[in-house]
Specification:
The chain has one domain. It contains eight helices and no strands.
């Protein structure tokens, strides 16, 4: 089945990022549905981790767990990165299309899934003194994912190392700018709605 092969190809990407990301774009070895599947699985493991991690290592109270917030957080970060990266690389002669960026970023999330599931299981059977292993795995999951996003950007847009570093830094800044503009826009809309509602009530009275 093509979809299953595209999911399995994620294992090749995370261990051979240069060849993997190259084939994702040039040879169409991956797909957007498979990439979005990894995003959905990341959302699921984020929620499961908050609910099932052993109490010694769980910093989140169960009553504070909100699945909607987890979905919005992961989805927003994913979309913001891809959109900001596309906007920036379009101005910097990047060769990647919007779809290529979404696919590469989605596949780069696979280490988060593969590492953090065993972390949750491990947290249920280790003591506080053995917590070093837990925290090391946590750090590895973030670092590995970050490295894959970096290499994915480099290969997708055919950038040099220095240009990729600059692009990633500017993309993070771009994410902040987009969020600021978005919040400003919604604030203006909210004020307009409040103003219109106030006028309507005054006219009724």
């Amino acid at each position: 089945m093509q979809y299953a092969r595209e999911l399995k190809y994620g294992l090749h990407v995370i261990f051979h990022p240069f060849d993997g990301f190259w084939d994702l774009k040039r040879e169409k070895r991956g797909s957007l549905p498979a990439a979005l599947t990894f995003v959905i699985l990341t959302i699921m493991i984020t929620t499961i981790e908050k609910q099932c991690t052993g109490f010694l290592f769980n910093q989140v109270r169960l009553k504070d767990v909100n699945v909607v917030v987890d979905i919005l957080t992961v989805t927003l970060l994913y979309v913001l990165w891809c959109v900001a990266n596309w906007c920036l690389t379009s101005l910097m002669d990047g060769e990647g299309k919007m779809k290529d960026i979404f696919i590469a970023t989605g596949y780069a999330l696979l280490p988060m899934i593969l590492i953090r599931v065993p972390m949750v299981i491990m947290s249920l059977g280790i003591t506080a003194e053995e917590g070093t292993f837990y925290y090391v795995l946590s750090a590895v999951s973030y670092i590995w994912t970050g490295i894959l996003i970096f290499f994915g950007t480099m290969v997708t847009h055919q950038y040099s190392f220095k240009k990729t570093v600059l692009t990633c830094v500017c993309t993070v800044v771009g994410m902040g700018i987009i969020m600021f503009i978005g919040l400003l826009f919604f604030n203006v809309i909210q004020q307009m709605i409040t103003f219109a509602t106030t006028i309507y009530k005054e006219l009724r009275f």
